[in-house]
# Entry
Amino acid sequence: MCKAAGWLIALLVVSGPVAADDNDGSWAARAQGGYAKTGGNTDTSTATALFHIAHVVEGWKFLFGAEGFYGSTKGQTTAQSWDAHLQANYNINERLYWYGGLRYDDNKFSGFAYQETVSSGLGYQFVKTDDTKLSAQLGVGARRLRPELLSEDSLGAITATTELPATTDAVLDAAVNLEHSFNALTKIIAGVALESGQDNTMTSLNLALQVKMSNVLALSAGYQLVRNSKPPAGVGSSASLITLNLVYELKNPKLAPE
# Structure
């Protein structure tokens, strides 16, 4: 895995300037990855990955994102999650937009086999400058989720699962996204999202401080908190994650890959 990461870094260094030169102003992208391994008595491994992309076609803006995390202790999986989202925004005017989105969450240790949501609503870009972008959106949708009961060993690895009946409910969908550059080298990226329904309310917070190393590469220190209000019995309601990642970014000052 370390060798593969090395090849990936080399590829990004070589291809980054070319991709940046070829960008016609309608694309923005961000990819990041991190890996850590400790030996001895603990013998743990962790890996994170993220890919976000944005594309503008006339009055439309298309957003796609995928994220994943994996952790193991003494060769046993003790953390595993991934999610993906797809959203289309249509500009009603310079700041107001309509959106329609799909989202899928799969966290093996959350007490839910999956949560999938389709939603639609309105969003507004409060700040839209080269240095700062702040937007919020609010809508409604439908969510299907399948809770499950988990049995874990002393290390926290799952030994057995019992899936419960899937449910579908109406949800309130809300999100706030912020990207702010303090200077030419340092910026902060933050986002809060909420899906609230009768069966569960899932709240996620993402915060990252990014320090630029070159035109396309940066280091990022990140914090993530995910909370489910009604997990099945025996499963904790909150999970947090602190990461240090290498970031590749196809930067577009007019377009942020939320």
